[in-house]
Amino acid sequence: MASERSARQRRANGEESRRRILDATVEIAGERGYEGTSIKLVSARAGLPASSIYWHFKDKDELIAAVIERSFGAWLEAMTLPEVEPAAVEALEPVELARRRARTLAAQMAKALLDSPDFLRLGLMLALERRPEEPSARTMFLQVRHVAHERVVHAIGELAPDLAPTTARRLATYALAAADGLFIAHEIGGDDVDLLDLFDMHAHALSDTVARLREAQ
Amino acid sequence: MASERSARQRRANGEESRRRILDATVEIAGERGYEGTSIKLVSARAGLPASSIYWHFKDKDELIAAVIERSFGAWLEAMTLPEVEPAAVEALEPVELARRRARTLAAQMAKALLDSPDFLRLGLMLALERRPEEPSARTMFLQVRHVAHERVVHAIGELAPDLAPTTARRLATYALAAADGLFIAHEIGGDDVDLLDLFDMHAHALSDTVARLREAQ
DNA sequence: CCCTTGCTGGAGTGAACGCTACAGGACATC
DNA sequence: GATGTCCTGTAGCGTTCACTCCAGCAAGGG
């Protein structure tokens, strides 16, 4: 490129800087975890000095918590059961319709994970850590996860209303946990692991499990 | 306690010290990840000076890799399909027998995880990290995981010999990934999450999936 | 035109980091 | 009891860490 990004920005721009810092942080923290995220690295990738980071955020703890907070909404949105066209409702048996909706939801989640894996990668690293003084980012991620769990419980209640509430909760725990595992498998295996295929298999497995649990009760 | 652990050990004892260092490291690294594991912390928990650590291990990288290496065997052992009493072989249909064996294997894995969670917790943290210079511990864990994956493929081949090889591989990936996820769910949720129950549900889900895949092909 | 506000730039703090150097104690072998 | 090996204990190396201080600059409002 001939035109260097002109000299320096011509006016102080806090909002833009804050965004750049958070972008840099989510990348680095998603690659190296909490301890591995150094202010110097973030500052270098954001193209801003350390003092700017400390102007926007109280300390490292708050910085990483802010990263989780920012992705909160987008992440939960992917966990919402999508509506279905009325034609399908009429054409299919309820059980078959539920399976189809579960598969759609699974595909939606898989795509969200492929799209921005940094958030969950960081979240899971934080969740696995057990240091004496818990980082606020970990607390925050666990809260997000709790809300996600409630959402899955709700989705199961909608797709399989005849399931006992405690059974639905167990199934939701299983569903969410397996999704985490599939994500990790894809992180490890790269493109050798077909995340969409695995999530589809997962949706089927859950539907099969509902059928089995239904018979059992 | 009146009797202080007497003064200091009376003879140099390398093997014992090495074990103490590795014990301390697996605990700390399992709690705080790679970067969070400082030599000073390990030295304090092992009750030995830093120089002893560096006498036994070349550097931090080798130390953490040694932790993974030591747990290698025990971990793979838990992933071995247990034999089954001949009486059961005769009494049950093949499909029902396969389900029972899968449940036994799942219970065995769940118990191994409850028994010593540090290894997998550390391994998963390492696996999620993506720093430019990969720690040898990560490479080593991925190798262990690869062997584990092969074992699951083999177990599926034994329990469901009619499944196409590629299908068996996909299923093995799914099985192992979900197991990781369930472990994490238990790490997060503590005793609110019944790991044995979830693994049993997983064994059923896999058996159901085999049935479905069998029909599909 | 000055003054406040919002943000950047650079220099630097003490503490913690991984790691090393080296003297010396405990034991085995002779 | 001398000698060599194994391991411990102390001190400290250079580097990086999170974080601070403060001068200075571009806008907006008076």
Describe this structure in words.
With 217 residues, the first copy, chain A, is an all-alpha fold. The first copy, chain A, is 76% helix and 0% strand. The first copy, chain A, is built from 10 helices and no strands. Chain A has helices spanning 14-36, 39-46, 50-56, 60-77, 86-91, 94-115, 118-128, 136-159, 165-189, 195-216. In chain A, helix 1 runs antiparallel to helix 2 (39-46) and helix 8 (136-159) packs across helix 9. The longest helix of chain A is centred in the last third of the chain and has 25 residues, at 165-189. Chain A is elongated, with a radius of gyration of 21 Å. The first copy, chain A, starts with 13 loop residues before the first helix and ends with a helix. In chain A, 39% of the residues are buried. Chains A and B meet through helix 1, helix 7, helix 9 and helix 10 of A and helix 1, helix 7, helix 9 and helix 10 of B. The structure holds a DNA duplex (30 and 30 nucleotides).
Query: Which regions of chain A contain 5 or more consecutive residues with pLDDT less than 50?
Result: 1-11
3D shape of chain A: elongated
Number of helices of chain A: 10
Order of helices and strands of chain A: HHHHHHHHHH
Which value, in Å, is the CA radius of gyration of chain A? Answer: 21 Å
Question: What would you call the quaternary organization?
Answer: homodimer
Strand count, sense and barrel status of the largest sheet of chain A are: none
Mean model confidence by pLDDT of chain A: 91
Would you spell out the secondary-structure blueprint of this structure?
The structure is a homodimer of 217-residue chains.
Chain A lengths: L13 H23 L2 H8 L3 H7 L3 H18 L8 H6 L2 H22 L2 H11 L7 H24 L5 H25 L5 H22 L1
Helix pairs in contact in A: 1-2, 1-4, 1-7, 4-8, 6-10, 8-9, 9-10
The structure holds a DNA duplex (30 and 30 nucleotides).
Keywords (chains A, B): DNA-binding
Organism (chains A, B): Actinomycetospora flava
Protein name (chains A, B): Helix-turn-helix domain-containing protein
